């Protein structure tokens, strides 16, 4: 395998020998350190392969043994190279091809972000682009260490950034810091205020001065437990303490919504018309556009980045726009179904912003019906924790 | 007459050498230049220490060695490579025989 490759690189000739004492000719050649291989006999002629240099040394032995020999075939790189020496345009074209390939691969054509969980990849890419580290920039001009430092300074959540080139891709590897636990320093003096308007149902103070009692109604933001206290009833000296209390109260929530009694549904058919376009940098070049013979359709756009291998994405993308036909259909739904659906929707909305400690105590729903829609109002009363700890500004 | 004497003389010389290598337990292929013939099934034959080709066709190859003429009969015989000391022959080998 390697030997044949090596021989091909060095170039060899297939020699045809004819005469009476061909064996003697070969003996002479071999004894004079000429390397021959693949020696074959056919119709009283011997064919063998030998290197170019060795072939030049064969002449005296042919004369000595009166054997005729000639080149049957030339093979190998030196002969191919010689052949292409005459074709100037071809060699020039291949050199230009290599040059273009080299120039194109010295740019960044794709930026990829890995390892981020909380920070959006697009944000990082845009931030890099503003600093000139976007797609289409010359690889040699980018200082990756500077870009890393820039990203770390920009996002305090990022603790480590590694940027490297993989072919024409620029891969940004990000390590985000673990979110810091909330500061629950017990020694910082603080007040407790009300989260919402509420009716206090339960209050148990561990630390601090309670200012409300069970049965009181409070407004949002009202002070419930104060961290500012007198040392004793007789001593007016004021000291500060971190307030701690469990305060529960009844609060109101309400939600409104309407739902039409007619529903629009889309029945997709199999009719699809496609539009292909090439995206070069940020320009779109339409390639092929099928006419759309139908009125109602949705567009589905897929973007295919062209790449030589996984490592070398090109600055071109094939954009395929599919237009899928649908037949619009309006269906009447019964009033009861509409109501059920609306209540379920509103209830889902509401429960998403109730706190975990909330216990629903009362719930009522009002419906109003117009010509082709139903609206509803849901009122609920829940009991929940209403205390919110704030620091005392001294 | 002269020629016969000479061959007899070399044979005698060889006998002494052979006995000497036998006695000293030396490898014969090194001291007396005897051929080393390696057969791989009937597909390939390697011959080291040969002194020249006598006949070369695709059915029959005759080689001169120290222990006489080696005749290889076969079908589609072909020398893969050839140097002054070693020859590697491929093809379907039917016979390997010595002619003295």
Give an overview of the whole structure.
The complex is a heterodimer of chains A (394) and B (100). Chain A has helices at 2-10, 22-31, 52-56, 59-65, 77-85, 88-104, 121-130, 144-154, 335-352, and strands at residues 12-18, 36-42, 45-51, 68-75, 110-114, 158-166, 169-176, 190-194, 198-207, 209-210, 217-218, 223-226, 228-230, 238-240, 244-260, 262-280, 283-289, 297-307, 313-332, 359-369, 373-385, 387-391. Chain A is an alpha+beta fold. Chain A folds into 5 domains: 2-81, Alpha-Beta Plaits (2-Layer Sandwich), CATH 3.30.70; 110-176, Roll (Ubiquitin-like (UB roll)); 190-248, no CATH class; 256-261 and 333-384, no CATH class; 267-328, no CATH class. In chain A, strand 13 and strand 14 form a beta hairpin. The longest helix of chain A is centred in the last third of the chain and has 18 residues, at 335-352. Chain A is elongated, with a radius of gyration of 43 Å. Chain B contains 2 helices and 6 strands; from the N terminus they run ααββββββ. Chain B starts with a helix and ends with a strand. Strand 2 of chain A pairs antiparallel with strand 5 of chain B, so a sheet runs across the interface.
Gist of the model:
The complex is a heterodimer of chains A (394) and B (100). Chain A is of the alpha+beta class.
Distance between the ends of chain B: 19 Å
Question: Count the helices of chain A. How many?
Answer: 9
Question: If helices are DSSP runs of H or I spanning 4 or more residues, what is the number of helices of chain B?
Answer: 2
| CATH architecture call of the largest domain in chain B | Sandwich
Radius of gyration of chain A: 43 Å
Q: CATH topology of the largest domain in chain A, what is it called?
A: Alpha-Beta Plaits
**CATH-wise, what's the superfamily of the largest domain in chain A?**
ACT domain
Give the overall pLDDT of chain B as a whole number.
Answer: 84
User: How are the strands of the largest sheet of chain A arranged?
Assistant: 11-9-15-21-20
List the quaternary state of the chains. heterodimer
Radius of gyration of chain B: 15 Å
Q: Count the beta strands of chain A.
A: 22
- What fraction of the residues of chain B are assigned to beta strands by DSSP? over 45%
């Amino acid at each position: 395998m390697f030997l044949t490759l090596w021989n091909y690189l060095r170039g060899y000739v297939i020699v045809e020998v004819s005469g009476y004492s061909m064996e003697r000719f070969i003996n002479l050649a071999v004894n004079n350190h000429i390397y021959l291989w693949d020696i074959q006999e056919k119709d009283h002629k011997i064919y063998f392969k030998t290197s170019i240099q060795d072939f030049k040394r064969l002449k005296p032995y042919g004369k000595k043994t009166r054997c005729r020999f000639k080149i049957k075939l030339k093979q190998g790189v030196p002969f191919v190279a010689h052949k292409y020496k005459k074709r100037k345009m071809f060699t020039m074209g291949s050199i230009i091809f290599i040059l273009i390939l080299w120039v194109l691969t010295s740019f960044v054509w794709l930026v990829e972000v890995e390892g981020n969980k909380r920070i959006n990849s697009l944000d990082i890419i845009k931030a890099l682009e503003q600093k000139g580290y976007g797609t289409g920039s010359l690889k040699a001009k980018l200082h990756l260490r500077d870009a890393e430092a820039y990203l770390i300074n920009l996002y305090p959540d990022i603790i480590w950034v590694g940027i490297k080139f993989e072919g024409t891709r620029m891969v940004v590897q990000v390590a985000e810091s673990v979110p810091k636990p909330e500061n629950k320093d017990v020694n910082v003096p603080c007040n407790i205020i009300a989260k919402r308007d509420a009716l206090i149902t339960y209050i148990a103070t561990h630390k601090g001065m309670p200012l409300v009692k069970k049965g009181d109604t409070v407004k949002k933001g009202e002070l419930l437990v104060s961290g500012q206290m007198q040392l004793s009833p007789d001593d007016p000296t004021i000291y500060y303490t971190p307030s701690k209390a469990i305060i529960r109260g009844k609060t109101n929530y309400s939600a409104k919504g309407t739902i039409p009694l007619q529903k629009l549904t889309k029945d997709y058919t199999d009719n699809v018309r496609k539009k292909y376009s090439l995206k070069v940098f940020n320009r779109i070049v339409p390639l092929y556009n099928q006419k759309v013979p139908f009125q109602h359709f949705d567009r589905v756009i897929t973007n295919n980045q062209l790449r030589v291998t996984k490592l070398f994405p090109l600055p071109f993308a094939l954009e395929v726009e599919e237009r899928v036909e649908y037949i619009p259909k309006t269906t009447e739904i019964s009033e009861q179904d509409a109501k059920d659906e609306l209540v379920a929707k509103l209830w889902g909305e509401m429960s998403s912003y109730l706190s975990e400690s909330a216990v629903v105590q009362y719930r009522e729903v009002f419906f109003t019906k117009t010509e082709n829609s139903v609206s509803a109002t849901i009122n609920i009363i829940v009991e929940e924790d209403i205390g919110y700890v704030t620091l005392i500004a001294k | 007459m002269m020629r016969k004497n000479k061959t007899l003389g070399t044979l005698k010389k060889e006998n002494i050498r052979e006995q000497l290598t036998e006695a000293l337990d030396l490898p014969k292929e090194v001291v007396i230049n005897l051929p080393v013939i390696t057969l791989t099934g009937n597909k390939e034959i390697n011959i080291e220490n040969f002194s020249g080709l006598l006949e070369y066709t695709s059915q029959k190859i005759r080689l001169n060695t120290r222990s006489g003429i080696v005749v290889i009969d076969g079908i589609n015989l072909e020398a893969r490579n050839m140097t002054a000391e070693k020859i590697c022959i491929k093809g379907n080998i039917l016979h390997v025989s010595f002619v003295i």
